[in-house]
Design goal:
This protein has about 200 residues and is α+β, with helices and mostly antiparallel strands. It contains 6 helices and 8 strands; from the N terminus they run E-H-E-H-H-E-E-H-E-E-E-E-H-H. Bound molecules: inosinic acid.
C-alpha cells in the first residue's frame, strides 16, 4: 500500500514540528490528532516502550482507519535499575514538578561518580497501518546524570542529563542541535527510512 497521509498521535506541538521537518521531503502529509479530528484517552499499560507506542498507534489507526505514528519515550538511569523508564512522565506523580523529580534523581545517585551515573534517553516510534502492519524503530541518546541542573532549553529531565561527548547538558542544547543527536530524532529518521517503502 501507498501512504499519502499519516496521523501523528501526539498533543505535543514540539514533536509535531520535529516530525514535519524530518518528513518534509517525503510528500507525506502529517496531521496532528487535532487536525484529524480524533481524541481518545489511551491507557499506556504496556511494560516496554515498544508496547506502549504500539498500543497508542493501533488505537488511533483503528479509530481513523489511517496510517498512524505514535511514540513513547523516557529516561533510563542504570544505577536506579533503569528507572524511571516507561514511568518517566509518571515518576513521583504526573503533577510533581521536574525541579523535584530531577533533584530526587540527583539525590538517589549521591556518592556515585563517572560511569556509575550512566543514563540514556530512549524513544520508540510505532507505525500502525490499516492493513494490520506494525513497525517500530528505537533511538537512544547516551549520557550521565549530572550533579546539578543546567540549561534553559528542552523539557523534563534535560537539565540533569549531561552529554560527556559534547561537554554540556541536554538542557543547554539549541533545539536543532538536540534533534540531530536525540533519541527522538534518531528514531524518527529510522522511521522515515521505513516509510520510504510506502511512498
Ligand atoms: P512521552 O513519551 O512524551 O510520554 O514522554 C515521557 C517522559 O519521558 C517525558 O514526560 C519526560 O519526562 C521524559 N522524556 C522523554 N524525552 C525527553 C527529552 O528529550 N528530554 C527530557 N525528558 C524526556
Amino acid at each position: 500500500m501507498k501512504i499519502k497521509k499519516i496521523i501523528f498521535a501526539t498533543g505535543n506541538e514540539g514533536k509535531m514540528k520535529e516530525i514535519r521537518m524530518i518528513l518534509a521531503d517525503t510528500k507525506i502529509q502529517v496531521l496532528s490528532l487535532k487536525e484529524a479530528g480524533v481524541q481518545a484517552d489511551v491507557e499506556e499499560n504496556g511494560s516496554t516502550f515498544e508496547e506502549n507506542a504500539v498500543i497508542k498507534a493501533r488505537k488511533f489507526m483503528e479509530l481513523t482507519k489511517e496510517a498512524v505514528l505514535a511514540d513513547d519515550s523516557g529516561l533510563e538511569v542504570d544505577a536506579m535499575n533503569k528507572e524511571p523508564g516507561i514511568y518517566s512522565a509518571r515518576y513521583m506523580g504526573y503533577d510533581t514538578s521536574y525541579k523535584i523529580k530531577n533533584q530526587s534523581i540527583i539525590d538517589r545517585l549521591e556518592g556515585k561518580t563517572g560511569d556509575e551515573r550512566s543514563a540514556r534517553f530512549v524513544c520508540v516510534i510505532a507505525l500502525a497501518l490499516p492493513d494490520g502492519t506494525v513497525i517500530t524503530t528505537r533511538g537512544t541518546m547516551e549520557g550521565q546524570i549530572g550533579y546539578e541542573e543546567r540549561g534553559e532549553n528542552g523539557f523534563g529531565y534535560d537539565p540533569i542529563f549531561y552529554l560527556p561527548e559534547y561537554r554540556c547538558y541536554s538542557g543547554e542544547l539549541a533545539p536543532e542541535e538536540k534533534n540531530k543527536i536525540s533519541h527522538r530524532g534518531k528514531a524518527l529518521r529510522l522511521m522515515k527510512e521505513e516509510l520510504k517503502k510506502y511512498i
